[in-house]
Design a protein that fits this description.
Number of strands: 19
Strand content: 5-15%
Structural class: alpha+beta
Bound molecules: adenosine-5'-diphosphate
Largest sheet: 8 strands, antiparallel
Shape: globular
Number of helices: 20
Length: 664
């Protein structure tokens, strides 16, 4: 169920990334105020024994450790020499006249430590208490709405937290599974409680009847929960606790993946970091390395006896850290938390096809983001309406992925605020707890934050244009190697390792463009929202949509349109989970999508759902394009005669080729 092995063919390039650890090991130094002098240069040190495979990756990590300690480009080696030469070419610009890239870190919360190290490596200017003048970048720990920001860039999208909540994610994935069942079989079959409890019970009964050998287990996860909070496993769909969730928190009940890939007899999952750099146009990057979090009790397939054993079934770090078997490790490839690259190395040495695994993971990430973008776009236009001053957004997401025994990656959830902590609490002496650095977290997370900043760098182009690496000179003693101006940042950039984040979209856009149907439906929805700042469509907006797209006719009257609107909107609003506009009774995007599918099914009866939807989209888009063209001509005082022919390229606004559409 929901666990087929179909995969999408990808280009060859994604395969192979991550075969080596990302090659970054910044120093674990104490937090220092911005602009504090660099530590003196140290001779290179050998990495800790077993800290990853030797070779280029090991050398890169070593180099990165140096960078973290001294500040990038501050000392010996080619980067340092080039830095000195370039520093000489711009006397007078250091010392704060032009601060280079400015970053407000006052709301960074638990990501602060990793952010500080990143900024030090980049030689960017940190404002730990905020700034009266606008900053280039605002780094928020939790949400977009932490501040009033009118310019620059912020590391959160409005609505992301709501969009990746368990119920909303499950709904978005269900819509995509309805359209493309094989392409989206990487997400376990899920139902929403309490409203889908009867459906859940009925569907499981039917599936059991068709395959009596199927002995499923289900995992129940409260909506909005995290860190394993409130999660439990059940075998029987009629378990009383499921019905009880109607009185408590809404939840998702999901098919439990019973045969995960094990390592050292333990279940583990993968946290991968994904950068959504831009929504429109869509730009996605994936970090070459991530984290693997291990259970602390040997895994057994679920039975009534072991269902409650969280250390066996749940991989959450926050739970397993309380197990006496939890192993904090100084190495990135041992212990209860390891780098994903170390897992890939082991799999590769066992003969596993890790290229294909990477390719499947990239495909999973792109498809998931394609499922999330329609909702995100609705929030975006509501919070940052076109034409109003506002920041641009980017965001690091945490993808939790479980590998099945056959190496098929399955999506468990997406985190809007993945932990960026690089230390953990430890008992230093009996009864005395303190925070100690976690090498594995630091290795992965600092690289992700730093390289995210490099990718969104607002001065990148300026810096590139000014770069002229052939000129090298020894600096004057007065030239501080640790300024935060553009020159220092340029020098730092030159000394950094290659990016750990790899672009996957638009790079592989072609293979996925056919999946972006709901995105196009959302575009129609947004067009008819009318009032700026809203996220729900009123009855008039819906009627205008139907009229402008010429969807009503003698078989589908405007009265029927109103009934459709009322029926669907009422049902969605009665579900009671509305993070956007509680009390607003309009039609939300998901309700509009349902109405759109309904219209498509009526009009193009004989086709599979995705073709029905694609056909109706084409139909609507053509009519709207023709309307826009007419309005444009109107504006120019040259309105064509009523009923003029549609525009070139829009020759068949009536029916898609090869299919006779039914009337609505
Ligand atoms: P939370 O946000 O509370 O961490 P998750 O969805 O990540 O919730 O689930 C917690 C843990 O439960 C996961 O890390 C994983 O180990 C396990 N888990 C979740 N869903 C499934 C599933 N469908 N099959 C098997 N294990 C799962």
């Amino acid at each position: 169920m929901g666990t087929g092995t179909g995969t999408t063919e990808m280009g060859t390039e994604p395969a192979g990334v991550g075969m080596e650890p990302a090659g970054t090991e910044p120093a674990r130094e104490a937090e220092e105020p911005p602009g504090s002098p660099a530590l003196p240069a140290e001779p290179p040190q050998a990495g800790p024994p077993g800290a990853g495979p030797p070779g280029e990756a090991g050398r890169q990590r070593q180099r990165q450790r140096e960078l973290g300690r001294r500040g990038a480009g501050a000392g010996q080696g080619p980067g340092g020499r080039a830095a000195r030469g370039r520093a000489r070419r711009a006397p007078g610009r250091r010392g704060g006249e032009e601060p280079g890239v400015t970053v407000d870190s006052s709301k960074a919360k638990t990501s602060l430590e990793a952010l500080k190290i990143s900024l030090r490596q980049l030689r960017w200017k940190e404002f730990p208490f905020g700034r009266r003048l606008p900053c280039d970048i605002y780094w928020h720990g939790v949400s977009f709405h932490d501040n009033n920001i009118f310019s620059g860039q912020v590391n959160k999208f409005p609505g992301m937290m709501e969009t990746v909540r368990k119920i909303t994610l499950s709904r978005a994935m269900r819509t995509m599974q309805d359209l493309f069942p094989l392409e989206y079989n990487f997400y376990p079959r899920s139902w929403i409680l309490p409203e889908e409890l009867p459906l859940f019970v009925a569907e499981v009964r039917v599936l059991r009847a068709s395959d009596p050998s199927w002995q499923p287990t289900f995992i129940v996860k409260p909506d909005g929960g995290c860190q394993g909070d409130g999660i439990y496993l059940v075998k029987d769909p009629r378990d009383g606790r499921l019905a009880g969730s109607g009185h408590g928190r809404p939840a998702v009940v999901q098919e439990y993946i019973c045969k995960p890939l094990l390592m050292d007899k333990l279940k583990f999952d993968i946290r991968l970091y994904v950068l959504l750099k831009s929504l429109e146009p869509l730009e996605i990057y994936i970090a070459k390395d991530g984290l693997s979090r291990f259970c602390t009790e040997p895994y057994q397939e679920p039975t009534l006896k072991n269902l409650h054993q969280v250390f066996m079934h749940l991989t959450n770090y926050s739970l397993n850290i309380h197990s006496e078997n939890f192993i904090h490790s100084d190495s990135v490839n041992t212990g209860s938390k390891r780098t994903f690259s170390s897992i890939l190395c082991r799999l590769s040495s066992r003969g596993a096809d890790v290229k294909k695994l990477w390719s499947d993971i990239i495909s999973l990430v792109i498809k998931t983001i394609i499922a999330l973008t329609p909702e995100l776009k609705v929030y975006y236009q509501s919070d940052i309406p076109a034409g109003k001053p506002g920041p641009t957004c980017f965001q690091i997401l945490g993808f939790d992925i479980l590998l099945m025994k056959n190496l098929k990656p399955m999506l468990l959830e997406v985190n809007a605020n993945p932990s960026m902590r690089i230390e953990h609490e430890q008992e230093l002496s009996p009864g005395v707890f303190g925070n100690v650095p976690s090498p594995v977290d630091e290795e992965v997370k600092v690289a992700v934050i730093r390289d995210t900043l490099r990718l969104v760098d607002p001065q990148k182009k300026k810096r590139k244009d000014a770069q002229c690496p052939s000129l090298e000179r020894v600096p004057e003693p007065s030239e501080s190697p640790l300024g935060a101006g553009p020159d220092a940042a340029r020098d730092a950039e030159a000394a950094l390792p290659s990016l750990c984040l790899k672009q996957v979209f638009p790079k592989y856009a072609k293979q996925f463009s056919h999946l972006r149907l709901v995105d196009r439906v959302a575009k129609l929805f947004i067009r008819f929202l009318g009032v700026k700042g809203t996220t729900k469509l009123g009855p008039t907006g819906f009627r205008t949509f139907v009229r402008n797209c010429k969807l009503s006719n003698s078989n589908f009257s405007m009265a029927a349109v109103d009934i459709l609107y009322i029926d669907i909107t009422r049902r969605w609003n009665s579900m009671g989970i509305d993070h956007k506009e509680p009390g607003n009774t309009g039609m939300c995007l998901q309700a509009f999508v349902e109405a759109f599918f309904c219209l498509a099914q009526k009009k193009y009866k004989s086709l599979p759902l995705h073709e029905q939807v694609a056909s109706l989209l084409e139909f609507c888009e053509c009519h709207l394009a023709a309307l826009d063209e007419r309005r444009l001509l109107w504006g120019w005082g040259a309105l064509p005669a009523r009923g003029a022919a549609p525009q070139p390229g829009c020759a068949a606004p009536t029916e898609p080729q090869g299919h006779q559409a039914g009337r609505l």
